[in-house]
Write a structure and sequence with these properties.
The structure holds three protein chains of three kinds. By secondary structure, chain A is of the alpha/beta class. Chain A folds into two domains: about 150 residues, P-loop containing nucleotide triphosphate hydrolases (Rossmann fold, 3-Layer(aba) Sandwich); about 60 residues, no CATH class. In chain A, a hairpin with a 2-residue loop joins strand 4 and strand 5. In chain A, helix 3 packs parallel to helix 5 and helix 5 runs parallel beside helix 6. Chain A is globular and about 50 Å long. Chain A starts with 6 loop residues before the first strand and ends in a 12-residue tail after the last strand. Chain B is an all-alpha fold. Chain B folds into two domains: about 300 residues, MetI-like fold (Orthogonal Bundle); about 220 residues, MetI-like (MetI-like fold). The longest helix of chain B has about 40 residues. Chain B is globular and about 70 Å long. Chain C is an alpha/beta fold. Chain C has two domains: about 230 residues, Periplasmic binding protein-like II (D-Maltodextrin-Binding Protein, domain 2); about 160 residues, D-Maltodextrin-Binding Protein, domain 2, CATH 3.40.190.10. Classes of the chains: A alpha/beta, B mainly alpha, C alpha/beta. Chains in contact: A-B, B-C. At the B-C interface, helix 13, helix 15, helix 18, helix 21 and helix 22 of B face helix 1, strand 1, helix 3, strand 2 and helix 4 of C.
Chain lengths: ~220, ~525, ~425
């Protein structure tokens, strides 16, 4: 039976030389969050890199990745429709907030006015209504993270990867942003894979928690 | 390089024998070697001390903006500017005599008879070389700095109690140096083979090997032509050998720093004196250069200006007026050549760098483009000229532009490469994940973010083209007057006023370009704090 | 995309290369194999031509003079005269030699060349010159061949019409009267002055042309029999006669500028030393130079000139036409124009150039003679009758041996 919705990892294995770093088989349904937990340096980012399509040729990859029934294992990054949020917001410094957002929007023949309205709408969604023309460098850490999030979502991805996206923020912001992220991804019914070493993040995600080798982890004991 | 051996094959044995019997051969070799090494070492020391001590402070950014335009001043102009200040009949002595006169202290009203410029030890030449090379090395260092994770390293070093200089030497230098190696080699090769600076500032009994070659070439007898060709080969060997010696010194340096690691010396006491001496030398050096350029300007409008007057007795616009038509024509050619050689170079380097990034190994920047930086021009240009003659394309603008291109390309690659590669590729990844094609990423994300380095390397390319003499003169077969060919021909007449005029105009075009390179990003990105200036 | 750029660059360069090679075929000029006797024919063929006159560009006064000359060439003959500024004559000689090696028979980049001495001897013996043409120029009849034999003999070598004279030079000393109360009449008195005034005299470093001329001048002074200088130097005579020259130099160097530890690089560097008051006695090949510089406001107005009582070396500047010149007709017209009395008079004007004329003034018509007599030769220029004897240049062998010897003795600091 072919699985036609969500993100499927079919025996995704990644080798560094002779060492096996990652061995995952998982099915992340729409609106669900899969959390990968491992100590630093174990290969969490490598796993995400493989899924998004940016794996360094230094590593060897086996297995398949499916998204909404389509085999995306051999597709280039820009055709996969897999969004990714990193620890650094990576907002383009030479563009205003609005331009950053516009960059992400797919070219579906909307007029300039329509795009502008969409940008305003999106900014309101994250409580930043007047920031369209701001220089990203003038924003606070939390504001930048929010812009990065909605930018990513404006590209209309079919799945979302989170690479420790909250670790640069302080505890309060962290909690707020976490809520926002999961609220938006649930609303858009996106399958999400999150990589973190913070138990609080995993708990907030509320989904399965596994190690890089696919073993389920019990996070109830801290 | 076979074209260069052609002139020699005619007379080989005879030419080398005559060269061997020249009593100035070993002193000339020694001079080229010593001044070249000394200038490079001092220049390098000053540059790195500057970075180690001041990078990160606000003053540093100001300093960078001040220093960059000096890259625009052609070497010969800078050398001449120095002579206006340092010669016994120059501004310093004139000032001293005028002061003494005013104070009633008796002093000779004719210039003292001591050697400052053209001193046998080559100190004046070293001084001039250092002043011209430090801005270039600083620029290269800025480019390389971004790739060494310096701020974090420095933090760690100072947290461990190391002084800034020692911390730099132990933690940043090992990572920084490999990036600087090629520019350092270029500086070393230039310092050893420069003709115009050595002729103006260096000793003459005997002169450096490069100067002697250029003198022999002007003598009609085939004997001297042969000796010039033989000496050019010797010079090439000398440069190659010195680069090898330098590599050996690198190993020694590595051993020393390893020993230092183990000893744990913190070197805190070094910072103060080095800061002091560095500042003093830096201020003196640049002060001399700035005043020298000012003197150049004044000479260009001076009427009668006898010693010991500090300012001319009369002023006249005559020289500028007389030079006008020549200057205009020469400027046109210079600008055209600079654009014809630099624009393709920038495009080519960008294209190759992007290919490299995309993983197409065959398009890596081939080492061969750096050869013109290291091989003395006089060694292969005459051969290239013969080729253009055979093809019937000598004396044409496009041919000369191509000759310039050969020298502009490596400098553009040197200045643009590090910045291009230092660009955070995660920007490309997230953009890709958002569905942007490679083309879109290159033009809309990468290039705008690299505006500063692109403009600066263009400016460096243009400055390089403007400063070219041998390519314009030889391959242009006398038909293409550039500001530099005119300046050199006029300099052979020693007319200070003309030197002043042409020297200033020669510096003006590259200075404007550098100014643009520094100010355009400021304007374009006036609302984008992080991209306004080179970090 | 980057690949596309690279492809475009490759194709473009290939295209350019092809265009270059195609453009190789230039329109040929009709070459006179020998000079046609009909001057009108020459003028006709020269109309519309461009003549690249390669001449030293280090003196703005010369440059300005040549610009004026191109104006005359354009209005009178419809010839475009282009001054190619050289740092040294040998640059152009080398270029012609390279071109002729590549069989550029009619497409040379040098049409007319200011030349004399060694460079001329080399080009003539190397069959690189077009000619003979000089004596067939209409204005050549005015040249003072009797009174100025150097117009026919360049460094003891007969010109045979392969170069045409256009200016005369004679070595004169320039001095500041404030420091030279009595003018030295010969080399002995000069040495005495040098010794009493340390650091106030020098000469350009050989093998610079003016530097070696100074050495030849001193040799003329100390030599036992001047006639030997007109024949090639033999080892025995050379060693005997130059011994006294080295003696003079050994005595003078410690009291010279920079104690002989450095020398100015060229004639113009020496001239600058005089202008800066670093030296009090200088010398030059151009008797009108000091006046010209004074009137240009570059030199102390008190400077005057002197010559030795037994004569100073003189020589002539010529123009020659390379064998592969592209515009020979035009070059012939310009060579002739240089001998035009009005042009010669203008060159002699110290406010313009201050070069001595090669013409026999008495052979000109009265109008042209007046142009010369009306000239104010300048405050520092010696009148023609005060210039004294013009000594012939020694045979070239003397100069090359002296230059080499100087290099061995003083060329490297010990």
């Amino acid at each position: 039976m072919k699985i036609t919705d969500g993100l499927v990892l079919d025996h995704l294995t990644i080798f560094k030389g002779a060492k096996r770093l990652v061995a995952l088989s998982a099915h992340v349904k729409k609106g669900e969050v899969l959390t990968l937990m491992a100590p630093s340096g174990a290969g969490k980012s490598t796993a995400l890199a493989a899924i998004v399509g940016a794996l360094d040729p230094f590593f060897r990859q086996h297995g398949k990745i499916f998204l909404d029934g389509q085999d995306i294992t051999d597709l280039p990054i820009h055709e996969r429709h897999v969004g990714i949020l990193l620890q650094d917001d990576l907002l383009f410094p030479h563009m205003s907030v609005a331009a950053n957002l516009a960059f992400a929007m797919p070219n579906s023949g909307q007029s300039k006015g329509e795009r502008h309205r969409l940008i305003e709408q999106t900014l309101e969604e994250v409580d930043m209504p007047l920031h369209a023309n701001a220089d990203p460098a003038t924003l606070s850490g939390g504001e930048r993270a929010r812009v990065a999030l909605v930018r990513c979502l404006l590209a209309e991805p079919k799945a979302l990867l989170l690479d420790e996206p909250f670790s640069a923020l302080d505890q309060d912001l962290r909690a707020t942003l976490r809520l926002k992220v999961f609220e938006l991804t649930k609303a858009r019914a996106l399958p999400v894979i999150m990589v973190t070493h913070e138990h609080a993040d995993a708990l907030a995600a509320g989904g399965e928690v596994i190690s890089l080798m696919g073993q389920a982890l019990d996070i109830s004991k801290t | 390089m076979s074209p260069v051996l052609r002139p020699i094959s005619g007379q080989d044995q005879g030419a080398f024998m005559s060269l061997w019997s020249w009593n100035g051969l070993w002193p000339a070799i020694r001079l080229s070697l010593v001044t070249g090494l000394a200038a490079t070492l001092i220049g390098l020391a000053m540059t790195t001390a500057l970075f180690a001590l001041f990078q990160g402070h606000r003053i540093f950014r100001v300093f960078l903006r001040l220093v960059a335009p000096f890259l625009a001043v052609p070497h010969a102009t800078a050398a001449l500017a120095l002579t206006f200040i340092l010669a016994p009949s120059g501004w310093i002595m004139r000032g001293v005599v005028t002061l003494f006169n005013a104070l009633g202290i008796p002093i000779s009203q004719t210039p003292p008879d001591f050697i400052t410029i053209n001193d046998p030890g080559g100190l004046a030449l070293i001084f001039g070389l250092v002043i011209k090379e430090v801005p270039f090395l600083v620029l290269m260092c800025v480019a390389a700095w971004a790739q060494c994770d310096a701020p974090r390293r420095r933090l760690v070093a100072s947290a461990l109690g190391y002084g800034r200089i020692t911390g730099f030497w132990l933690t940043i230098w090992p990572v920084l140096y490999p990036q600087l190696r090629l520019p350092i080699f270029a500086v070393l090769a230039y310092s050893m083979t420069t003709v115009d600076m050595a002729m103006i500032l260096g000793p003459s009994l005997p002169p450096s090997l490069a100067v002697q070659i250029s003198k022999w070439i002007t003598l009609p007898e085939p004997l001297y032509q042969g000796m010039a060709a033989a000496a050019a080969v010797v010079q090439l060997t000398l440069v190659a050998a010195t680069l090898l010696v330098w590599r050996f010194l690198e190993l020694m340096g590595r051993a020393i720093s390893r020993a230092q690691f183990q000893s744990g010396i913190r070197g805190l006491s070094l910072d103060g004196p080095i800061k002091f001496f560095g500042l003093v030398f830096g201020l003196v050096g640049f002060g001399v250069l700035i005043f020298g350029l000012l003197a150049l300007g004044i000479w260009s409008i001076a009427g009668l200006w006898p010693y010991p007057d500090v300012l001319p007795q009369t002023y006249t616009p005559r020289v500028w007026a007389e030079a006008q038509s020549g200057v205009i024509k020469a400027t046109q050619n210079t600008v055209i050549l600079a654009l014809l050689s630099t624009v393709p170079a920038v495009f080519l380097v960008l294209a190759v760098l992007q290919s490299e990034f995309l993983g197409k190994r065959t398009y890596r920047i081939q080492r061969i483009i750096y050869v013109p930086l290291l091989v003395p021009q006089i060694t292969f240009l005459p051969g290239l000229y013969q080729l253009t003659l055979t093809a019937g394309i000598s004396g044409q603008t496009l041919t000369v532009a191509f000759a310039h291109f050969i020298f502009v390309l490596p400098y553009v690659a040197l200045t643009m490469g590090p910045a291009f590669r230092a660009w955070d590729i995660r920007y490309a990844m997230v953009a890709s994940a958002m569905g942007a094609s490679r083309k879109k990423i290159f033009w809309q994300v990468r290039l705008p973010m690299l505006l500063c380095p692109i403009l600066i390397s263009s400016a460096v390319g243009i400055a390089t083209s403007v400063a070219q003499f041998l390519p314009s003169q030889l391959i242009g077969a006398g038909r293409i007057e550039t500001l530099t060919t005119e300046a050199v021909a006029l300099t052979s007449g020693g007319n200070r006023r003309l030197i002043g005029t042409y020297g200033l105009v020669q510096s003006l075009f590259p200075a404007i370009v550098f100014g643009l390179a520094l100010w355009v990003p400021t304007l374009t990105y006036r609302n984008r704090r992080t991209l306004r200036a080179p970090k | 995309m980057a690949q596309k750029l690279k492809k475009i660059a490759l194709v473009a360069s290939l295209a350019l290369a092809t265009i270059f090679l195609a453009l190789q075929a230039q329109a040929q000029d009709k070459m006179p194999a020998v000079l046609p006797a009909n001057w009108d024919n020459v003028l006709n063929e020269a109309r519309g031509q461009t003549v690249y006159f390669n001449a030293w560009g280090g003196d703005p006064k010369i440059n300005a003079f040549l610009e004026w000359l191109s104006g005359v060439a354009r209005s009178r003959y419809d010839i475009h005269l282009q001054h190619v500024k050289l740092a040294a004559t040998s640059d152009a000689v080398a270029r012609v030699r390279s071109e002729m090696r590549e069989n550029e028979r009619d497409n040379g980049s040098v049409d007319l060349l200011w030349i004399n001495g060694e460079n001329f001897a080399m080009m003539k013996s190397g069959n690189m010159l077009f000619g003979p043409f000089a004596e067939q120029l209409p204005n050549f009849k005015y040249v003072d061949r009797i009174g100025k034999p150097a117009t026919l003999k360049d460094f003891t070598q007969a010109t045979d019409g392969y170069e045409s004279p256009w200016a005369m030079a004679q070595l004169v000393f320039e001095y500041d009267p404030q420091f030279v109360p009595t003018v030295p009449k010969n080399s002995t008195e000069l040495l005495a002055w040098i010794t009493k005034n340390p650091g106030r005299f020098t000469y350009p470093q050989p093998p610079d042309y003016l530097g070696t001329t100074f050495l030849k001048q001193i040799l003329y002074e100390v030599i036992s029999d001047r006639v030997v200088l007109q024949s090639p130097a033999t080892q025995a005579i050379y060693e005997k006669e130059t011994a006294k020259l080295w003696q003079w130099l050994d005595a003078a160097h410690p009291f010279m500028w920079r104690q002989g530890q450095g020398f100015p690089a060229s004639e113009s560097a020496l001239a600058q030393l005089l202008a800066d008051s670093e030296v009090a006695i200088s010398f030059s090949f151009n008797p009108g130079r000091a006046s010209a510089e004074i009137s240009a406001g570059n030199l102390n107005p008190n400077i005057r000139s002197f010559v030795f009582e037994n004569g100073t070396i003189g020589n002539v500047s010529f123009v020659a036409i390379p064998l592969n010149s592209k515009n020979k007709f035009g070059s012939l017209v310009i060579s002739n124009l240089l001998l035009d009395p009005l042009v010669q008079a203008r060159a002699q004007d110290p406010a313009i150039l201050g070069f001595m004329t090669v013409l026999d003034i008495k052979s000109l018509n009265l109008e042209d003679q007046a142009a010369f007599s009306q000239l104010d030769l300048g405050v520092a220029t010696l009148a023609p009758d005060l210039l004294g004897k013009s000594l012939l240049e020694p045979d070239v062998s003397w100069m090359s041996m002296i230059a080499q010897d100087w290099q061995k003795r003083y060329g490297v600091l010990k």
